Amino acid sequence: WIGGSGEGWERAPYWLDGLVPLAFLLDDERLKDKVQRWIHYILDHQHEDGWLGPIHDKTYGYEHDPWPVYILLKALTQYYEATEDARGIVAMERFLHRLQDLLEQTPLTSWAQLRGADLVLSIYWLYRHTHEEWLLNLARTVQQQTFNWQAQFVDFLYKEKQTEWKFQSHVVNNAMALKQPSLWYQVTHNEVDR
Hints:
With 194 residues, the chain is mostly helical. Helices cover 63% and strands 0% of the residues. The radius of gyration is 17 Å and the shape is globular.
């Protein structure tokens, strides 16, 4: 995420997602300096096509794995809330335009498909700041390509201890999915989603 040959998947975005609010809530200059070093590097090294972060060697299914960027977007929203640095908004818009193009070619898979609600959260945040309608269309596309957690929760198949790992039974995926209907309600206003 900031150069080098280290692991470039979800660790750094998760770390930033926790460090950004911690640094600013504590008003800790040392932590804020770390945050700014990372955020500035990531923003300054956004790819020409709008992609944020590393491009992979298809280890996780495809070169442009959006899942870790979902987490980064949450960190960028918090960074903006703390600093009002508009570069984060511009970077998010550029990334989401790129992702919109990619989703037309390759629908969400793997972690990105199971955790689409995390992306929708940031899309809604950006929409509330920019009022750009294309963001709601992108949210609809993401919702359509995201695993249907509501259907799974209606007739939950994993009531007993599982001995075989599956995306659908992974406890973190299930916990993170609880927000999906309420996020979608913001567009549908359907009581079922509420």
